[in-house]
User: Fold this.
Amino acid sequence: MYYAAPVAILIDELTKLPGIGPKSAQRLAFYLLKISPENAKDLADAIMNVKDKIGFCNVCFNITEGDMCELCCDFDRDDSLICVVEEPRDIIAIEKTSSFKGRYHVLGGAISPIDGIGPDDLKIRELLDRLKDEKVKEIVIATNPNIEGEATAMYLAKLVKPLGVKVTRIASGLPVGGDLEYADEVTLGKALEGRREM
Amino acid sequence: MYLQNLKLLNFRNHKKSSLNFSLGINLITGKNSQGKTNLLEAISVLLIGRSHRTTLNDTLITLGEELSLVKGDLVGGSKKECVEAVFRLGETKIVKINGVRDQKTKDLRGLMNTILFSPEDLRIAKGGPDKRRAFIDEVGEQINYDYNHLRWKYLRTLKQRNDLLKLVAARNQKREALDLWDEKLVSTGSKFIYTRRDVVKKIRPYCERIFSKINPRGVFTIDYVNDFKDSEDVEVDFLKKIKSIREYEMGRGVTLVGPHRDDLELCVGGKDVRLYGSQGEQRMVGLCLKLGELELVQKERKRSPLLLMDDVLSELDEEKRGALLGFVSQLEQSIITSTSPDYFKCVSVGEINLIEISNGSIKEMGCLKA
Ligand SMILES: Nc1ncnc2c1ncn2[C@@H]1O[C@H](COP(=O)(O)OP(=O)(O)OP(=O)(O)O)[C@@H](O)[C@H]1O
Ligand SMILES: [Mg+2]
Ligand SMILES: [Zn+2]
Assistant:
């Protein structure tokens, strides 16, 4: 099928989004062709807005509007505990369970040679810097329970244990091979409570 | 449970078809390229979760169409489950059970075991090791709930390590990075080897016994061949081995030890049939492996599997055909394709439900007494 160039470009861009195949991209493109110019502008503005205003927290690399995220600024949280996750969206999943009151650290992914990601591409050095602070007694590794998440957890445990910080891994009541993001609140809450030492 | 009926929409050369199956033997006949294999393939993608001919779902959809449906009722006791597979061009398959989309299930093994037997299976002794690994996997996934997950985990770890070997060779990653993946490969790999060992140990006596029943003078043996065959502690030996060949592996950019290189040694009279067997012996071995699979699954799952058999009868001599049909007649249900119903004339297998296909259209011919 052939489309006018602007439509083809739009479909092309949409296909780059995660979870969107050529068919869905085509559907979305035709939907966008039909909406009013105002609605289209609202969508474009919203996208530009997050790009302008949102950055990464200086401390934990969560997404934030300022230099430091809300969770890092919160005085009531426990400084002795850091939960290590792959992506900012994992923080949201864990926060929903309300069973964790410590701090977070976002790695920005997991070790995966297939995707060309090695330890140096993740915020691991920054995590080690945070552990120099005497206050931290334990890190809870909450990377995804898939091959890459497990490998990353193992790698971190080897680095961190010699520093005298306790390393725990969330229990594997989670769907194996799955993403944290999709785990429901109850399972994820239980997984946090039942964490085991590595 | 058994498959009571099937509806097809735009599945290969079946535009719109609907047919009923009975318990016992269902025989699908028709001339070449009328749609017999396509019909079995439809049942296979629905109940086994994959096709034996292709991994490209789009080719299943009738050319020029965008959507294909395969739908059937599974009946057992007082229970009835409506199962359905939906294919849309360029999208992943959707499975529905009683109209509700099922996110997790990629196949319906939980409801029913289905085994496909095609002429390819008769050539398993002659083909490459990948064919024999696939056989172990097929048996494993039916008797061990965890098997596929374990296998997938190993293959994914293997791919990660292979990619890393290439990155290290190109100096895009430090070689110490391999330590982590060595450990992961060894831990998932040893578990997988132990599991396969167990699968082969379970199926071996069934196949060997069936062989000597058909051919009392012959002795058939199956052995699981892998890099750590006689190892007491696979994990320790695997790690040792992989450390010792690291330089070599870096040069090649692939992992050279592990269960991805497994094989089955199939011997008749003490001689490897792949190297020394006659064509007849090789087919006989293929037949015994398949019948062994049927018997083992029946025993382990405590229910009769559905057998789908594509064109196998024409490939066998009378003796083997007789043995096969004797076996088939004891199953709760089988669906068999053949260009001619003649093979059933000389053996008594009871009643047969006859179905004729011509150019994708299906005619139910009713009961044939054999
Ligand atoms: N996606 C498709 N769309 C339309 N027709 C198709 C499609 N895929 C396959 N066919 C056609 O279906 C026909 C029947 O194929 P099938 O393999 O079922 O034949 P068969 O009855 O098993 O024949 P044989 O006895 O030779 O094995 C073939 O002629 C093939 O061209
Ligand atoms: Mg055929
Ligand atoms: Zn922060």
